[in-house]
Amino acid sequence: MSKVKGKPIANFLYVLVSLCAIGFLMYAYFRPHLNTKLQMEPVLELDRGWTYVSPEGNKKEITMMDRMRKNQKDGIVISRILPQKDKVDYDTFGLWSVFQEVTIFIDGEPIYSNKDKTMAKRGLERHNGALWNFVKLPENCTGKRLTVSIRAPYKTYQNGFGRAMLGTYSGIYAKVRRDYSWRMILAVLFIAIGCIFGFYQLLLIYKKTVLISSVISSMFAIWFGLWTFSEAHMAPFYTGNAPFISILSFVAVRMATISFLLYFRSVFYRDYRKWNGVILALLCGEFVLSMCLQLLHIRDYYESLGEFIILLGVLIASVFFEIIYTLWSGKYRETKSVLIATLVLGVLVGVDTMLLESGQRLRIPYGVSATLGMLLLVLVFVVSEFVKIKNQALLAAKAEHFEKMAETDALTGVNNRVTENRWLEEHRMLTANEKMKTSVVVCDMNFLKSVNDTYGHRFGDEAIRTMARILKEVFGERGVICRTGGDEFTIFSNTMDGTTLRECIHQLKVQMSEENQKTEYLLSVSAGFAFFDPERDIALENTISRADDAMYHDKMLSKSTIAKR
Question: Where exactly are the structural domains of the chain?
Fold first, then answer.
């Protein structure tokens, strides 16, 4: 993407993909769901009592937390005898796995595989694409041998199992939900931060100080919060709806990733590498393609995990390289905290990855350090964007102040010739009917020279300020008052007719006369007005000239008669 067109295209692509994601979630929500009510039923933890046969043929009893060598090609097989249902009345087997192909056997007969679509049916038998597999057991299975086979395409997960339980679907899911309840707090915190900061930006729309990067940071917090929510297995208003929660996880993690990438594009836009735009396009393409294939029932969305992980790895590497380069080159000092927080997050994600298997043995929920690191990053994002918004608002206020100063007469506080010139330019853009509504009043003070000569220029300046004050009182917001000369003022209006103008000029002269009773000197004003006439005026300058002639005619008459020419 080019430096000129890349940013608008990226923003458009983000909006388009966001709409697709929301539509896909709505589709998933309105599909038939699992309506099982979750109850805190007893479950049986299957930590012990498993049989493992080593590659040398040695049989031994193990626990689920023991490390094992592969005893089949690219995987491990363990088994156990299913207990009687005297303690727990079970019909479902729950197994925790990470990026592993799982196959379940009862007395050697396969009953479940999360790889084989003919065996892993949608619904109760599988928590689609998530870490927990829910397997419906056949009736009268007590006393039979349950065999679990795993095959892990990723080396990290090839030699270990997770947790296993027996119980009802409702009981196991409720148990899992309770164990991951700490994530619900973080999910609410992420979503709250994103929504509050987003609402704050809505309040700034009228000030035109909203930044694209701020909007994206809000969306990043919200999407990551939704992903944390889905991973928490706590969905009170989607009770028992594991398939939808899994789809929410699929959508949210990709939208959070795209938001993360787009945020850095907005921060490092001018110097960010062009190939970053290629990564953005590939991420969006993979996401949309996965949704389309799911809708067409060609491929389930979770099967695209491999492609997503590859793109995610490339993204992390590119962002890491860009951060190191930026810190080394000393650019973007104002976002240094964001860069450091991102590096800290990368370290914490690495720690989480290394401790994942140990975490299951120690019963420490996976993702703790990475989630806390992401919370730190989101907070840094928000604080950084808040500071940027405040700085931009301050710059905008200063620019507005200087612009107003440039258009304001220092002596009187009314507009100066800059405003007059703007009126002349804008009048040329009006339609013929709109131009005819424009009126011009030219006012000039009488006897100001004698005031300056007799009392000094300080009193002359005071007289000019008095004139400006009375003009504002008479015309108010009906006209734009400009000081166009030493003691000459021009008023522009699109709302007053001839009768109103005469009344205003009469009131002006009356108030000037009343002011003479408070001063040592004598002042009066001459005024004339004219309407734009397309038959006589080529431009508004001609109207001003005719109003000026009317004012001089009034001055020559030396009386209160209003002259119009």
Answer: 6-35+177-397, 44-167, 417-564
Length of the chain: 565
The structure tokens listed for 264 are 């850095």
What is the C-alpha separation between 524 and 551, in angstroms, rounded?
A: 13
Structural fold of domain 417-564 = Alpha-Beta Plaits (3.30.70)
pLDDT in tens, 40-94: 678 888 888 899 888 888 888 888 777 777 777 777 888 999 998 888 889 889 8
Q: Do residues 325 and 271 touch, judged by C-beta distance below 8 A?
A: no
| pLDDT tens digits, one per residue of 395-452 | 777 767 677 777 788 888 888 888 888 888 888 888 888 888 889 999 998 888 888 8
Please tell me the distance from the alpha carbon of residue 427 to that of residue 537, in angstroms, as a whole number: 12
* Residue 515 near residue 470, CB atoms below 8 Å: yes
Q: What are the tokens at 217? A: 């940071």
Query: Could you give the strand order of the β-sheet that contains 164-167, starting from the edge strand earlier in sequence?
Result: 44-45, 164-167, 92-96, 132-136
> What is d(CA 319, CA 343) in angstroms, rounded to the nearest whole number?
9
Please tell me which residue, 132 or 112, carries the higher pLDDT value. 112
Question: In this predicted structure, what is the pLDDT of residue 354?
Answer: 61
Q: Answer whether 6-35+177-397 and 417-564 agree in fold.
A: no
How many other C-beta atoms are found inside a 10 Å radius of the C-beta of residue 101?
A: 16
For 203, the token pair is 């309040």
Distance CA 381, CA 399 (A): 27
| CATH classification number, 6-35+177-397, choose in 3.30.70, 1.20.950, 1.20.1070, 3.90.25 | 1.20.1070
Candidates 140, 82, 147; CA nearest to 109 is 147
CB-CB contact of 213 with 240 (8 Å): no
Whole-Å CA distances, 416 to 399, 411, 427: 18, 10, 17
Cα separation of 115 and 305, whole Å? 13
**Spatial CB neighbours of 559, under 8 Å, sequence gap ≥ 6:** none
Q: What percent of the chain has pLDDT over 90?
A: 9
3-state secondary structure of 219: helix
* 431, HSE (Cβ side, Cα atoms, 13 Å): 2
H-helix or E-strand spanning residue 463: helix 457-475
Place of tokens 């709302």: 495
- For residues 550 and 557, what is the distance between their CA atoms, to the nearest angstrom? 11
333-342, 405-414, 426-435, 544-553, range with the lowest pLDDT: 333-342
For 470, the enclosing helix (H) or strand (E) is helix 457-475
Q: Which of 260, 189, 262, 251 is nearest to 225 (CA)?
A: 189
Overall CATH class of domain 44-167: mainly beta
Residue among 480, 501, 490, 505 at smallest CA distance from 442: 490
- In the chain, the amino acid numbered 440 is V
Side by side, which strands form the sheet with 480-483? 480-483, 488-493, 439-446, 524-531, 563-564
Host H or E run for residue 72: none
pLDDT in tens, 164-199: 889 888 788 777 766 666 677 788 888 888 888 888
Distance between CA atoms of residues 422 and 433, nearest Å: 20
Which carries the bigger pLDDT value, residue 366 or residue 96? Answer: 96
